Amino acid sequence: MAHISAPSVQCQVRVVPTSSFTARPMTSKLWNSLLLNQRKKGTSRSSARFRVLALQSESSTVNRLKDLLNLDITPYTDKIIAEYIWIGGSGIDLRSKSRTISKPVKHPSELPKWNYDGSSTGQAPGEDSEVILYPQAIFKDPFRGGNNILVICDSYTPAGEPIPTNKRHGAAEIFSSQKVINEVPWYGIEQEYTLLQTNVKWPLGWPVGGYPGPQGPYYCGAGADKSFGRDISDAHYKACLYAGINISGTNGEVMPGQWEYQVGPSVGIEAGDHIWCSRYILERITEQAGVVLSLDPKPIEGDWNGAGCHTNYSTKSMREDGGFEVIKKAILNLSLRHEEHISAYGEGNERRLTGKHETASIDTFSWGVANRGCSIRVGRDTEKNGKGYLEDRRPASNMDPYVVTSLLAETTILWEPTLEAEALAAQKLSLKV
């Protein structure tokens, strides 16, 4: 929403003349004197001379604009507005534009392909700039309401080839493998983010140019001195539920001004679609609130927690009896492809994965039960029940969920290490598989 400069509240100043100052001009000195006198007890005479009435203007620009934004067009037309959303050239920025569709739709296959200027998003040269959008997933639009929708798209050349930043296409190929389909991979993704003040790009609630008290009271905290941005988190929570996103919870994080929400359990490619749409909704809400959203994995250097996107993962075999041994085998495979995963787990992650602040070192693979300082954490319930899930704590907050989810499936379901490498890794990690 654009910022509107016209005020929605108009102040009407009424000065009641009396014999004591009828002919006196309203100087700044007199104005201040009247304000001071109004605040003193027992000065009914001055309050009778001076009144400020705050009147709500029903015809103000803001109110009229709000009425139009909330206008329900459903009784008057079958047409709907579809907001086409795609990922820009940086691989993390979200772009969108709107188009009118002749009637409500229930499946993305009912929507037409569209195009955009890829030279303006860093995804195509100016002399051949047309990029084609393929609708892939639809969600209800919490901003426009009614039958209007948000459409998650991926991008292709006019010849039908996925462009380099289209990570969804490769993920869809992995998730369409019959072996992966049979394992029904589940994902629960914990998206952390930081809210920044608009002009200074400093965390919300922090003194400008200064620091709050040390970490400790902020995680899941309540109170004006501990929780900054709760309204944004709550608005996002409800908007995601309205949209049909499988959001499962939210909480304040360890660093003040930082929040987290969880999406899942989601199956296969759906996990990436839901995370990207939830990020878009969060961008729109922070835009309206006049706050900057940051997915930087270490927005503030020093003794402050970074921002991750921990990914909980399980397969059908992991969830069944004897699944803990399958989890151990998956951990072994993950250890052998540690560098490949790290390179795909987000930009700037080396600033976050230092071995401090509940992280493992980026250079060393580790795992443990209930240990948040490891690369892979296994829950106590999983150990006790002999089945369950694992948590990959390495992904950064700005990771691409299509890349992370598909790479986990590929490494643990499709990829097979050599027997020699497997034996050496098992010995190093003290795993019996």
Structure overview:
This protein is of the alpha+beta class and 433 residues long. It has three domains: 9-66, no CATH class; 80-165, Glutamine synthetase, N-terminal domain (Ubiquitin-like (UB roll)); 178-429, Glutamine synthetase/guanido kinase, catalytic domain (Creatine Kinase, Chain A, domain 2, 2-Layer Sandwich), CATH 3.30.590. The chain has 13 helices and 15 strands. Strands 8, 9, 10, 11, 12, 13, 14 and 15 form an eight-stranded mixed sheet that branches. Strands 4-3-7-6-5 form a five-stranded mixed sheet, covered by helices on one side. A hairpin with an 8-residue loop joins strand 6 and strand 7 (149-156). The longest helix is centred in the middle third of the chain and has 20 residues, at 270-289. Residues 1-55 have low confidence and may be disordered.
